[in-house]
């Protein structure tokens, strides 16, 4: 593998056709391409060295998603001669992966649905409660190994739920 700097410089090249873009747009496009190349290099490096924490990886992926989204907005417009796909090929980023990152960023931009302040919150059905109990059973059985521990757990659960449940 060549040096990191030369690898990135090969990916980030001046566009061949300007498509009527201003110097500022070309500089912005080149800056985004370089940021994406650096982030992608870091992502590939992560696969080789698993020393990063989950938090660092989350930040890295968030930044990569944001940059790819911005770059795609510039390159994937009508009349851009397929430059998005060409860039991804040159940067060795699989298109499906790039599109997944772009969609992830798009979803993060969407507004969070409002809480149901005006809609009635329905009580759970007996079937939903039974399913919840079945789902919790494996972990509870491992932790609550005596009759006394089960009794204590149920008492504490009732107490906690009474404190958090609004009065009817």
Summarize the structure.
The protein has helices at about 5-10, 25-50, 55-75, 85-90, 95-110, 125-145, 145-165.
Summarize the structure in words.
By secondary structure, the chain is mostly helical. It contains 7 helices and no strands. The chain folds into 2 domains: 4-109; 126-164. The chain has helices spanning 4-11, 23-48, 54-75, 83-91, 95-109, 126-143, 147-164. Helix 2 (23-48) packs antiparallel against helix 3 and helix 3 packs across helix 5. The chain is elongated. The N and C termini lie far apart (68 Å). 15% of the residues are buried.
Layout of strands and helices, then pairs:
Blueprint (H helix, E strand, L loop, with lengths): L3 H8 L11 H26 L5 H22 L7 H9 L3 H15 L16 H18 L3 H18 L4
Helix pairs in contact: 1-2, 2-3, 3-5
Brief descriptors of the model:
single chain, 168 residues, mainly alpha, 2 domains, 69% helix, 0% strand
Helix content: 55-70%
Number of self-contained structural domains: 2
Radius of gyration: 26 Å
Main pleated sheet: none
Amino- and carboxy-terminal Cα gap: 68 Å
Shape: elongated
- Given the structure, what is the number of helices? 7
How much beta, percentage-wise? under 5%
Question: Regions with pLDDT < 50 over 5+ consecutive residues?
Answer: none
Going by helix content, strand content and strand pairing, the class is mainly alpha
Give the beta-strand count: 0
Order of helices and strands: HHHHHHH
Overall mean confidence score, pLDDT: 78
